[in-house]
Amino acid sequence: MCTALDCAGTARNVRDVDRYLEEIVLSLLNKRHDAIGSAQPKWAGTALLQLLVGQRGSLEEQLRRGALSDSDLSREMADLRTRISGLEAVREEHRRNWQGTSVGRDPSRWPEMSLDQRRAAIADVLESVTVLPLPPGRSRRAPFDPGLLRVKPMAMD
User: Fold this and answer.
1) For the whole model, what pTM was predicted?
2) At what angle do helices 115-125 and 14-36 cross, to 10 degrees?
3) Is 130 helix (H, G, I), strand (E, B) or coil?
């Protein structure tokens, strides 16, 4: 219910509005889910990690051929291990973050979503909802009219 002095107490039944908006949100989530897909986006560091792993393999091969001493290998490998383990940690964090946020992108999980997850999903697909006042002469006891709601969806990325 609007409590501003100039709105004449615009009010709607929350359950009816929620039901209607839930249908819209699920529809928009389905469209977005179909358009984007559920595949995890490629991690930007994949090429660098593969390069470093390749360099590690090359150093090990050079040691086997005798082109590299144990001390040279140890020095080179220490730096590579640090960089590789750091990149692997970032890759794992990327995977965990994607799994955490993908719950809100899957409309089939709506019933089991927490309130915070539902709010995040709604914020992803709806920019605004405006409840319009009743037209002149319309009874406040009239059945729910979804035409008095203006829903503005978010633009798809």
Assistant:
1) 0.53
2) 70
3) strand
Contact by Cβ (8 Å): 105, 28: no
* Token digits of residue 73: 């290998």
Give one DSSP letter per residue of 21-90, joined into a string. Answer: HHHHHHHHHHHHHHHH-SPPPPPTTHHHHHHHHHHHHHHHHHHHHTSS-HHHHHHHHHHHHHHHHHHHHH
For 18-48, write each residue's pLDDT tens digit: 899 999 999 988 887 776 655 566 788 888 9
**What distance in Å separates the CA atoms of residue 149 and residue 13, rounded to the nearest whole number?**
12
How confident is the model over 42-70, as pLDDT tens digits?
788 888 989 989 988 888 888 888 887 88
Contact in structure between 111 and 26 (CB atoms under 8 Å) = no
Q: How far apart are CA 1 and CA 4, in angstroms?
A: 9
In this structure, what DSSP letter does residue 126 have?
E
